[in-house]
TrEMBL record:
<dbReference type="GO" id="GO:0016020">
    <property type="term" value="C:membrane"/>
</dbReference>
<feature type="transmembrane region" description="Helical">
    <location>
        <begin position="342"/>
        <end position="363"/>
    </location>
</feature>
<feature type="transmembrane region" description="Helical">
    <location>
        <begin position="418"/>
        <end position="443"/>
    </location>
</feature>
<keyword id="KW-0472">Membrane</keyword>
<feature type="transmembrane region" description="Helical">
    <location>
        <begin position="143"/>
        <end position="166"/>
    </location>
</feature>
<protein>
    <submittedName>
        <fullName>Cation:proton antiporter</fullName>
    </submittedName>
</protein>
<feature type="transmembrane region" description="Helical">
    <location>
        <begin position="250"/>
        <end position="274"/>
    </location>
</feature>
<dbReference type="InterPro" id="IPR050616">
    <property type="entry name" value="CPA3_Na-H_Antiporter_A"/>
</dbReference>
<feature type="transmembrane region" description="Helical">
    <location>
        <begin position="84"/>
        <end position="107"/>
    </location>
</feature>
<feature type="transmembrane region" description="Helical">
    <location>
        <begin position="119"/>
        <end position="137"/>
    </location>
</feature>
<feature type="transmembrane region" description="Helical">
    <location>
        <begin position="12"/>
        <end position="30"/>
    </location>
</feature>
<feature type="transmembrane region" description="Helical">
    <location>
        <begin position="383"/>
        <end position="406"/>
    </location>
</feature>
<feature type="transmembrane region" description="Helical">
    <location>
        <begin position="215"/>
        <end position="238"/>
    </location>
</feature>
<feature type="transmembrane region" description="Helical">
    <location>
        <begin position="42"/>
        <end position="64"/>
    </location>
</feature>
<feature type="transmembrane region" description="Helical">
    <location>
        <begin position="286"/>
        <end position="303"/>
    </location>
</feature>
<feature type="transmembrane region" description="Helical">
    <location>
        <begin position="173"/>
        <end position="195"/>
    </location>
</feature>
<keyword id="KW-0812">Transmembrane</keyword>
């Protein structure tokens, strides 16, 4: 093995540090040697994934390796612990970082984007923070890396430097920082006050410590304090961030940011509250209804969006709440489905955003109404888009079918009729805002732009650069591969709930 010479503690630390080391190399090379800069970014991504993947076997075997980095306050250490849910998140973040880097090289060069060194450096910091969140052994560690992730992605959101990008960045930073400091941090203080610990513990730490309305309030602080999970009404940061370049949108929606949100929600419910305790309490049933409302409302809004990236953004808001809904059902099989949906959504949604960026790069089209006939000129891009769309809808043979099957099974086992109705209705809505795009692309004729349109010269386009097309084809195939080989995410999901 490549990293066999490392101890478990060294491997865990290096998994967080390696992206930062790569970032320093990228910064040192700068603009003077683009090829070496991008090669360093890609090599760092590959090595990080290999290192993270090397820990998977131990976790599936029941090991929970842990290491204390330093003591921040008496009795409160910054600790990294590898457990099933965190291992899945780390695998997704580091694995898709490789593909996103390949895509970014093609996209950033083709669109002659500025500040590319800053872009790649901020990416490395964001991935380091995402792995830190994944391996957080307690709430303190999760909170610290959570904030680093927010701050490091702000320059990516405002990358263009336009007034629109600056406004979007303000909304992004304002909502995520205010929710984490005003709500999540308060929830952590409350938890520490009543339990004397912030550690993630199997079965939770709150049983017998809090009950009734206080339990509901504490759950409220956690669920809305984790703003990256995009529960309504703290979701506006996500569509606001669509001003960013497409590789950043992919990072936000598939690789790191929103996954950090729903990952944190699942981790708090399982390791802080505990499924058994919440099943007995019955004072947090409201979460099921808030998640269901977010799924349906965001889907309806998505139906009305002509801008392709905004439609995908509201689709993300909806799909994230599938994970929260599945966890709120409080059945082991639905929680395993939530874990599977994190992986399914990652591959499906990154494919959709890659396709949107490919369309912009080759054809300079951003609106759904402009996509008539584009599938005939960009068949690889639009077939990949179709595969990603089928996964979001939940149609086989895509990974989204597997995750929805597990979530529905959990809802049926527990008799949660509301959850069943939400999943069925939202599936129809998903089809309503995705399938017309595919229909337009392949079954309508292209309408040429007026000669006065400055983008008319792009009407005779073909596919985007090869790096862009290869990346989106890979993730589309990954979406199908996860349908046939879902063993790792499902095994990690079952290990999370002791199944």
């Amino acid at each position: 093995m490549l990293f066999a010479f490392l101890s478990e503690a060294q491997a865990i630390k290096l998994a967080v540090l390696l992206p930062l080391i790569g970032g320093l190399l990228v910064m040192w090379m700068g603009e003077r040697n683009r090829n070496l800069r991008e090669a360093a970014s890609l090599l760092t991504a590959v090595l990080t994934f290999a290192l993270v993947a090397s820990l998977t076997g131990e976790v599936l075997g029941g090991a929970r390796p842990s290491v204390d980095l330093f003591t921040m306050l008496p009795g409160l250490s910054v600790t990294l612990t590898v457990e099933p849910l965190g291992q899945l998140f780390a695998l997704i973040a580091s694995g898709l970082w490789i593909v996103n880097t390949v895509y970014s090289i093609g996209y950033m060069r083709a669109n002659k984007e500025g500040n590319q060194t800053r872009f790649y450096v901020c990416f490395t910091i964001a991935i380091s923070a995402a792995i830190g969140i994944a391996y957080a052994g307690n709430l303190l560690t999760l909170f610290l890396f959570y904030e680093v992730l927010t701050i490091s992605t702000y320059p990516l959101v405002t990358h263009a430097g336009t007034p629109l990008a600056i406004r979007g960045g303000r909304v992004y930073l304002g909502i995520l920082m205010s929710t984490s400091i005003g709500l999540l941090f308060l929830a952590m203080l409350w938890t520490y006050n009543i339990t004397g610990t912030l550690d993630f513990v199997e079965g939770g730490i709150l049983a017998g410590q809090i009950q009734g309305p206080e339990l509901a309030v504490l759950m409220f602080l956690y669920m809305f304090g984790i703003g990256k999970a995009a529960l309504m009404p703290v979701h506006r940061w996500l569509p606001a961030a669509m001003v960013a370049p497409t590789p950043v949108s992919a990072l936000l929606h598939a690789v790191a940011v929103v996954k950090a949100g729903v990952f944190s929600v699942v981790k708090v419910i399982v390791y802080i509250f505990g499924l058994d305790f919440l099943n007995q309490a019955h004072s947090v049933d409201w979460l099921l209804f808030i998640a269901g409302f977010t799924i349906i409302a965001a889907s309806i809004i998505a139906l009305r969006q002509d801008n392709l990236k905004r439609r995908l953004a509201y689709s993300t808001v909806s799909q994230l709440s599938y994970v929260i809904l599945a966890t709120a059902i409080l059945a082991p099989i639905s929680v395993a489905g939530a874990v599977m949906h994190i992986a399914a959504h990652a591959f499906g949604k990154i494919t959709l955003f890659f396709a949107a960026g490919s369309i912009y790069t080759a054809a300079h089209k951003t609106e759904v109404s402009q996509l008539d006939g584009i599938g005939k000129r960009m068949p690889f891009t639009m077939v990949a888009f179709g595969i990603g769309a089928l996964s979001m809808i939940g149609i086989p043979p895509t990974a989204g079918f597997i995750s929805k099957w597990y979530i529905l099974t959990g809802a049926l086992e527990t008799g949660e009729a509301f959850a069943i109705l939400v999943i069925v209705a939202s599936t129809l809505l998903n089809a309503g805002y995705f399938l017309p795009i595919v229909y337009r692309a392949f079954f309508k004729d292209q309408q040429p732009r007026p000669e006065s349109d400055p983008y008319a010269k792009y009407d005779n386009h073909g596919e985007a650069p090869i790096a862009v097309v290869l990346a989106l084809c890979f993730t589309a195939l990954g979406t199908i591969a996860l349908f046939f080989y879902p063993d790792v995410p499902l095994a990690l999901g079952r290990a999370l709930v002791g199944g």
